[in-house]
DNA sequence: TATGTTTGTTCGGTAAAAAGAACATAAGTT
DNA sequence: AACTTATGTTCTTTTTACCGAACAAACATA
């Protein structure tokens, strides 16, 4: 799938969502409408500043023009898909909702007993983890800068680098969301 | 802030994270290394296919090259944080993570006291809600078929139809994720 | 029916991005 | 030292994306 085809698909949709005609959008973005016309028809190879001008005029991030319809493609890749966490002796992770085709996240409930910390190998690039501690106490986060959490605390950190989860009190439980880009 | 400057900052970092030299990356992406050199020095106005080739070679989404890097970690202590949604007398919802450009989900922590049920108006079509109960007891779900949850229970239901959240015990707390299509 | 005003399209001229070669520099071999 | 193989930079050439103007088609106004 060539990148321009994605733009050709998303651009008219976002433009109409903003209630703009092709000519209006071109004027507002400060680009020639011929350029916009070709982009929407799937031809050409837009430069970054062109995309930037369009995204700004549409009041959306540039990424929405490029990989909004892309999530499915990224998930299909072998080796990059959602992986089940291994359940060690003192660490039980329950998969509550596996990643459906449209979304890009897994939700786990983790129940941990004090003892050895669970260090996770990095997940695919761009992964973020979100933790909300429900009970007990835990030391959570990047290996180089973990944070002690109390019930109700929320902490998010990059999952594509080494990170840890260590219970500091019995029956520590938390909600863990793994999110891909 | 011009977009090219962001790329110039991001590109070398991602390249080194992948353990590639400038020449290696250029070869693997199928672009001239002169092009890459100028991009990393903050000059030029790269075309979409150039960005695409680089992102693919680096095994990252294009948006990572373009959009400003989000703060990597974020900690919200229990009781702190922005109180989004209408905080009725017995219902406090804290927005933990609002929807970033690429993803489409909001994470809330809700703390509810027994009393009147909180009925929500339907959200946009396709929205799903996920609830993990942390403490207390609650009656949650679609108005016509709510479910009583105990700590640790997980329940998901369509958010685009009327639904309710009613605490059945004091200090009921839960994690709520609203997910768009 | 004429007359503007929009719509989105298809053309040449020009500025610029990308490719490729040549360059200097550095680190490792023989 | 002489040679090899990397590194990243700076050039020239070729390609092409952008612009602006001219264009046809649809709609409105008079």
Automatic annotation (TrEMBL), chains A, B:
The keyword ATP-binding does not apply. Keywords: DNA-binding. InterPro entries: Cro/C1-type_HTH, Lambda_DNA-bd_dom_sf, RmlC-like_jellyroll, RmlC_Cupin_sf, TransReg_Diox_bact_type. SMART domains: HTH_XRE. Residues 15-65 form the HTH cro/C1-type domain. The keyword DNA-binding applies. Pfam families: HTH_3. Gene3D superfamilies: Jelly Rolls (2.60.120.10), lambda repressor-like DNA-binding domains (1.10.260.40). This is XRE family transcriptional regulator. The lineage of its organism: Bacteria, Pseudomonadati, Pseudomonadota, Alphaproteobacteria, Rhodospirillales.
